[in-house]
């Protein structure tokens, strides 16, 4: 099941500033793979928490532990398990093995009705 089918708005918030054309390349990459999102936000690591707060994010899928800990203060966070993100996590962060497992967790929470009504947004970080 797609998140958009389950009623979620999907937004990508990513810290991609590695070279001048990366924003255009990222948009093309998403388009070429038929990945449809409501918005694509390029935000520095220090800005992600503010973006999540301003957009009233309900869920954030992240792969950086430090980002996850900061984001957990404003939204629910699913951390995709990687060797580089091991260590202490805020107690409400859920570690998942894959992106699909994260998506399933969001959908299951939505279906179960355990997610507050205003938590209907998902953000994927890169």
Account of the 3D structure:
It is a single chain. The relative contact order is 0.23. It contains four helices and six strands; from the N terminus they run E-H-E-H-E-H-E-E-H-E. It is α/β, with parallel strands linked by helices. It has a single domain (9-125), classed as Rossmann fold. It is globular, with a radius of gyration of 14 Å. The chain has a six-stranded parallel beta sheet, sandwiched between helices. The two termini are 22 Å apart. The protein has helices at residues 22-32, 48-54, 65-71, 99-112; strands at 9-14, 39-42, 59-62, 76-80, 94-96, 121-125.
Per the principal axes of the C-alpha atoms, what is the gross shape? globular
Mean pLDDT over all positions? 84
Mind telling me which CATH architecture this is?
3-Layer(aba) Sandwich
Percent of residues in beta strands? 15-25%
Biggest sheet: strand arrangement? 2-1-6-3-4-5
**Number of helical elements:** 4
Q: Main beta sheet: strand number and arrangement?
A: 6 strands, parallel
The whole-angstrom Rg is 14 Å
* Structural category: alpha/beta
Number of domains: 1
The first-level CATH class name = Alpha Beta
| Terminus-to-terminus distance | 22 Å
